[in-house]
């Protein structure tokens, strides 16, 4: 049975009713023909999401990390997807919390095409350099939390272009929106049927258990102008909702994008002031934004720390500030 045939089939006319999981571990419908799968990074709930887009040719958006693969495959199995039923897997970018499972998923679904930004494709085929860099960024968390990344055979890869349509069926596709900023190999996907935009990390991180939207500005690629431009492109598409990888569907897209724009600019301003004064950027960010975390229980803070730590954001902002051309610049566009 395909995912399109088990009761979530597209074409339902009644408004969508968000509810509790229909089956534990099987995900829940968050928009028409869109199933959110909690991939439970580190065993934590509501930190990493994958999304199954239903139709005659179902497509998975994000695999999560390699450590999430057993949970993800069990979820897809419970949704009725057999090994021949998944038509495609898209990763918004190749960071391990989004793409670490892609080699395993490609193996489990031998008919699935693996879709990735052109700047990410070679790293999925040969992850050696990506894993070296991840080992430097994540340290011991690489093996204790994320796992690694198995190579995907190059003939399984499909390199995405901006504006391209990934087919989910005759009346449904995911439109590719090139969206650098968080990473240079980042795409978002705009669902033609539900109108939901799958934004990866380009809008930021808002864990339901922490409640605050924060920008995600990690090294080595973060670029403020590109990130702001990507937000602008999202707004122009007038999505009906924004689905974050970390975590879930945000229903007021225009407000969310405006908030993301303002938040990103504030973080960059604080970082730039610290940078110019020779101060520690992480300490400045922590001081400026610690009130965001007031009232967030300690256990939930830890999730946000791992997913969106001040140190990772500071390192990305530092690198961006250091690499900027003094006048005019070469960034943007
Ligand atoms: Zn991420």
Protein architecture, described:
With 333 residues, the chain is an alpha/beta fold. It contains eleven helices and 13 strands. It has helices at residues 69-78, 96-99, 102-108, 118-125, 128-138, 141-146, 224-236, 253-276, 281-289, 298-308, 310-323; strands at 28-31, 34-38, 49-53, 59-61, 88-90, 113-117, 157-160, 165-169, 172-178, 187-191, 196-200, 241-244, 248-250. The strands form two sheets. Strands 1-2-3-4-5-6-7 form a seven-stranded mixed β-sheet. A hairpin with a 4-residue loop joins strand 10 and strand 11. Helix 9 (281-289) packs across helix 11. The longest helix has 24 residues, at 253-276. It binds zinc ion.
Task: Give the helices and strands, then pairings.
Layout (H helix, E strand, L loop, with lengths): L27 E4 L2 E5 L10 E5 L5 E3 L7 H10 L9 E3 L5 H4 L2 H7 L4 E5 H8 L2 H11 L2 H6 L10 E4 L4 E5 L2 E7 L8 E5 L4 E5 L23 H13 L4 E4 L3 E3 L2 H24 L4 H9 L8 H11 L1 H14 L10
Parallel strand pairs: 4-5, 5-6, 6-7, 11-12
Antiparallel strand pairs: 1-2, 2-3, 3-4, 8-9, 9-10, 10-11, 12-13
Helix pairs in contact: 7-8, 8-9, 8-11, 9-11
The structure holds zinc ion.
